[in-house]
Structure formats: C-alpha cells, structure tokens
Amino acid sequence: MAALGWLTPRRRSATARSVLAGEASAEAARKSSQDVQDIEDALTKETTQEPEFPVLGDDRAAAFFDLDNTVMQGASIFHFGRGLHKRKFFETRDLLKFAWQQAWFRLAGSEDPEHMQEARDSALSIVKGHRVAELQSIGEEIYDEYMAERIWPGTRALAEAHLAAGQKVWLVTAAPVEIANVIARRLGLTGALGTVAESVDGVYTGKLVGEPLHGPAKAEAVKALAAAEGLDLSRCAAYSDSHNDIPMLSLVGHPYAINPDAKLRKHARQLDWRLRDYRTARKAAKVGIPAAAGVGAVAGGTAAAIALHRRRR
User: Largest CB tally within 10 Å, which of 88, 94, 230, 243?
Assistant: First the structure.
C-alpha cells in the first residue's frame, strides 16, 4: 500500500502567492459577471423603460460627439501625424514620440497634461509656415489612409440616428478644427468644434487662438453654440469616452458614456447615465472570439491582482 501512497491526496497549506492567485481569480470573475449584468440591464432599460430617442422632428435638440476613442479608435492627431510623416513633414523620431504619447494614453486611460502639451507644441511647429489650404487637402487624403477604417460603427449609428430624426450633429474635440471638419464632412455630420490654430493670410503662425478645446473649454463651446442655434440643452445629447468631458456631458439632458475610461464609467453608473462599449466587439471581429476572451481574462486577472495588492498595503 505504501507504494500507492502517491495516489492519496496530500494536504498542503496555501502559500501567500496561491492565496493571491485565488483571490485575483475570484475578483476577475466577479468583475466579469458585473460587466455582463451591466449589459443586460442596459438592454432591458432600452427596450422596456426608455422613451423613443432621439425624438423625431425636435429641431431644438442636437447631439455633440467627442472624437478620439468615442467616434474614432485612437487619437486623430496621431493618425494625422502618421500622414504628415509619410509626406516628409517631420522626422521618424518625432513620429516615435507621437506613438509613445498615444501608447500612454491608451494604457493609462487618460490624457497626461505634459504629453498633451508636447504633442500640441510639436504639431504647431510642424505646420508653422504651411498654408491652411494645403493642410486641409492633405487631411482629406489622410482620412482615407488612416482614419476611415477606425470609425466605431456603433457610434456612427448613434450619430446617424440623430441625423435621421432631423437633428444637427456636431463633433466637439481638442483636435485641430481642420481635421475635425474633414471627419465631420466625411461622416455626413453637421460640423465640428475644434482647436483653432492661428493663421495670417492663410498661413499658420505656429500659435493657438486661445487654448485647446479640452475639458471645460468643450462645455463652453457647446453652450455658445447652443445659444447661437437656439437649442434647448435639456433636450440635447452628448457622447464621450473620457472623464475630462464630464462638464460637457453634464450640460445635456441625455449624456452617454461611450467606451468609457474607469473614472467616467464610475461617474456614469452613479448618475444612471447610459453606457455603450464597442471595444470588445471590435476586438472579437479582428482576432476571433477565443483570442479576445483570452486577452480579456489576462487583463482582468492582472487588474484584479493589482487591486488586491493595493488593498492589502
């Protein structure tokens, strides 16, 4: 019988690492279950509780869409930079800096003020001395090359629903207004509010007019446009992925969190704002459901382990 001792289960004490692994797995499972419940709750609310929206023929209503990671995957200024690099506007090391800033944005889930300032200064120095008409023409080409395939179909459908209801739809973005106007026109939207670079006699000076259209500045732009257009903001909708746009979202009667970062997701849940997340479907379509599920599991487990580690400290 002693020879068969290896068949008998041995009682082993759990190590600290195995406890952490088990708790992390449980935390990830709980989070995944909550995400599924959120989706089910949203679908139930849409089909059984919410009135029809947008309201057909309500000409005092409009919709305001953030651009980066709301309408388009990634940062539009980065994609624009790729196009300018291809046309020899600047050197490869500058593109690598743009790429690093974009990677930081996607990993951290929020804009870093220092990176934003560097990107802004770099972009302004690149376009200085060039004609506005030249950049507008190049922007049309770059949209086809790098941006068109990165439009979120779900967000585009939301914008088209407002247009079909007879409402105006505006992009509101910190991206240069020239880029924003190209994207708005290609998507059939009404227009765009964006950051304005100074020009004299049709030539960029390398300076901004005022400040970037970011955070509270977006809310001010929306208020000014609403006043000029005779809109009732309580009947308007706004869409964004970032907690930086909470001031804009808070202005309207119908705020939506689209592909939200962690802070916006939390805020939206607390205020019962509507949530839409198109990122998981996009990954599944590109790499296949099993691969996407595997990536999600690793990311969820890592996040859970980090959260538990912080909780213990």
Answer: 243
